[in-house]
User: Fold these one by one.
Assistant:
Number 1:
Amino acid sequence: MHRVFSSKICVSGLSLVVGVGVGAAWMGSNAKDDKRHVLRSNRGLLDRVPVIPIPSVDASELIPHQPGQVAMSKSTAAMKYGFPSLANIKTRESYVTSYDPRNRTASWVIEQMSPETLYGQSDRKFCEFKEDESVHVYHRATNADYKGTGFDRGHLAAAANHKWSQKAMDDTFYLSNVAPQNPHMNQNAWNNLEKYCRSLSKHYVNVFVCTGPLYLPRPEPDGKMYVKYQVVGKNNVAVPTHFFKVLILEKPRGEVELRSYVMPNMPIDEKIPLERFLVPIESIERASGLLFVPNIMKRTSALKAITMGA
């Protein structure tokens, strides 16, 4: 039996939808392990990872508004709630990313979705996966690294999220926006989560999505916890053990709803509902060394002060 525990917390106008998926979503790759042991171990897995403090930042501090400026670029708009970390920031046509040179993939990618970005004439058949030449050759993934590995070149910012511009869709095919994903997971459960994120743009004023890899510890036979992950190709591209998505959902009255998901990088039964992968945002912050909530609280508090002043 699988159980999902979820709750909705409202703090100073910030609505946190959190949940803990206990069951197949959190089980390790060895299905023959004792289920009770696996569930007990995984239930507290994320909580054992220490917090790595990273200063928060608000986008308005980095990109000042210019007089007469009518509209922000899509990438600038994605920075509305600041950055989860500050290292190796890169901007593309319609997303912002923090690159991890050691693992040869992004630490996170932030994008904004709305009906305007999801529809257009762009076609992925005109796109090709390509090296990111802005990354030093020592720290860059190549297409050859993925060849024959059995892993998909899994988008972090999905191509289908950026149909409004062929250039924007092309930019999602940089290998710096890609990580090795289990093909069954990528093409099924993960694809369903991406579709779900797009569907939310019909119900919210703005949908901001932050996606990234996780490398989570697990208990070994000696009773100790280890972080182990595969690397592929000549450049040792890291294969994440899990992936996360943090959704920042803006409502018409300025309220912000937050949802966070973690999905293991392994074959997943499509019948498992997406709600099973909901986790507390604090779990992702502890496991990744990133911080989301301080930025969101800072932004919403500033907006609230402006509104009250008006």
Number 2:
Amino acid sequence: MIGKILHGSAFGGLVKYVNDPRKMATLVAASDGVNLSNNQTITDSFVMQAGLSYRTKKPVAHIILAFSPKDVEQLVDRKLEWIVHDYLKRMGYDDNQFVAFRHFDKKHPHVHIIVNRINFQGRCTSDSHEKDRNIKVCKDMTNEYGLYKPFRKNSVNEKRLHSMDAIRYQMMHCVMESLQSATNWKQFQDDLAFVGIRCRFRYNKKSNGIEGISFSIAKDRVGTKMRHDVSFSGKQLDPSLTLDRLCQKLGNPIAIVHEQARDIYEDARLDWIESRKELEVRSRIDILFPDFNLRIPFQAEPKMFEHPDYLGDDKCLASSFFSELIDKFDDVADAGNDAIYVGLAALTEILFLPYQPAISVGGGGGSSSKLGWGDDDKYKKKKRNQGVSHIRGRH
């Protein structure tokens, strides 16, 4: 069992996403004070309660509880309801409005919970040390409810191995089993973080190439008297865990960012079309918004491959950019030989940088914060399916 917690400011869009019939959403549990008649009444219930604390800017807590595919048979609705109530109580949300819906759009069981952080007393529930508490609660409940432990040790007798070999084997098992259940990079990273393993990419600042991937575990998690954290490249763990092989399952990071940047660009294009008269659209649309791949030619070709090109394209970024990157993220570290290790968040900044001029020229105003690495937080197309027929003239 793995938990992920997001905070937001608006209930409406989230309610529609969580109770979406296309995802075969089914109600698992709900608190008092929520009118379950339809999505609008659910939203209104949350908004009314949140109004008791006008100072709280982000009253929305979106919690995703994910389970192993091997838990499918035992996760009947009644047991899932118990788990939801117990989890919320342990996280301090036992005096709050909530609804929980189960989705069936993925192989692994998962539940989306919307919690109103403004409790029934009109006070905002504290999120202090929430991430740490979430990890502990999920770990404890996995044991107590007899849920599958995806990161158990293999049959290899690690006690007979030297310490570094034992650590490598243990990490190899964790990464392999996480890869089995993960469907995207974000989930893969979160699954590993659950057991204290950090996943990072090796990026070459001179060649602008992603050279590989590494995995590290904190020294206090390996049960030995290590002076430093322990790191291995994917290849050192196992030949099946190289960046190339991981991309075959989780996708090419360059392709993912390219397609999501294209979504931002196309949405800006449709926004411009809807705000102009038809004659102006016909005369200027190709000038202001040429084909995205033609505007970003050096990114359009690499995105077609299954994995990043190790050699890059020699389009070096300014040194000041990397200084700001190091200050902004805690998942950036020096790898030597003009290379750095970066996590998903920092990699997003790097890969999205070339797109910013094109998107800002087009009027999109997009930023890397709009990009995601999984289905839950992927940048949503707002109007892609509306078509050009919605052109409105100014009156």
